[in-house]
Amino acid sequence: MKYQFLLDEAFKAMKNAYAPYSHYHVGSCVLTKDGKQFIGANIENASFGATNCGERSAIFAAYSHGYRKNDIEAIAIVSDGDKLAGPCGICRQVLSELLNDDTLILLSNGKEEAIKTIDDLLPMRFTQEDLK
Ligand SMILES: [Zn+2]
C-alpha cells in the first residue's frame, strides 16, 4: 500500500497510548501535503469524559502547528483491537470538520486494513453549512 509508512508511524505512536482503563490502544498519524507527520495516541483519564482519542490527538497536533484541511493528505488510525475499528462518533464529527470530504482515512489493526473518507464514515453529517 502506498501509505504503509503512515500506518507504520501510527503503530509507533500507538506505543505511547495511555490506556490504563480500556487497555485499548490507538495510534494515529496525519500526513500533510508538504510531507510533515503529526502523531497522536489515545490518552485516557479516570474522569472518562476527559479522555482524548488518538486520531483527535493527531489532528489537533497538525492544526496546532498551523495546518488546515487543505494541507492534509491522509490520516492513519490504528488500534490493537481484534477487529478493525473505525473512529468513534465524536472523532467522526471532529474529522468531518477538520478534513476535506475526500481525504483518505487509513484504518488498520495489523490484521485488516481499510481506506475510507469522511463521506463513507459519517453520511448526512452536521456541518458549519447547517448553521447558515
Ligand atoms: Zn474517538
What attributes characterize this protein structure?
132 residues, alpha+beta, Cytidine Deaminase, domain 2, 5-stranded mixed sheet, 4 helices, binds zinc ion
Number of strands: 5
Q: Can you give the helix content as a percent range?
A: 25-40%
CATH architecture: 3-Layer(aba) Sandwich
Give the SSE order as H and E letters.
HEEHEHEEH
Strand content: 15-25%
Q: Which stretches are low in confidence, meaning pLDDT under 50 for 5 or more residues running?
A: none
- Largest beta sheet: what is the strand line-up? 2-1-3-4-5
Number of helices, where a helix is a run of at least 4 consecutive DSSP H or I residues: 4
Radius of gyration: 14 Å
Distance linking N and C termini:
40 Å
Structure description:
The structure is a single chain. This protein has 132 residues and is of the alpha+beta class. It is 27% helix and 22% strand. The protein has a five-stranded mixed β-sheet with strand order 2-1-3-4-5. A hairpin with a 4-residue loop joins strand 1 (26-32) and strand 2. The protein is globular and about 40 Å long. Zinc ion binds next to helix 3.
Quick structural overview:
The chain has 132 residues and is α+β, with helices and mostly antiparallel strands.
